[in-house]
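Quick one, tokens below. Sequence please?
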């Protein structure tokens, strides 16, 4: 089975670059690539009906959704949990 492609929204990239130690998030992104069935800690539907997964990683929350038909995962946002 080929690896799933993981795309990051430019806001997520900006936040990732601003984090002092992004290794935990980078490891989770790599995990998503190799195991697309990985689930978040929470799920919520967006206005289009997609299930948005929310994964808490330390002080950061990573929001993503899966498109199994296209074999991709899109990371929409990385948020500081303390600011949410």
């Amino acid at each position: 089975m080929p690896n799933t492609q993981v795309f990051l929204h430019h806001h997520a990239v900006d936040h990732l670059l601003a984090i002092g130690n992004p290794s935990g998030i980078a490891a989770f992104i790599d995990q998503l690539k190799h195991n697309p069935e990985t689930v978040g800690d929470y799920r919520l539907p967006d206005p289009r009906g997609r299930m948005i997964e929310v994964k808490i990683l330390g002080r950061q929350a990573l929001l993503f959704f899966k498109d199994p038909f296209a074999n991709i995962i899109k990371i929409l946002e990385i948020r500081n949990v303390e600011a949410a």
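The helical segments are 10-18, 23-34. The chain has two helices and five strands.
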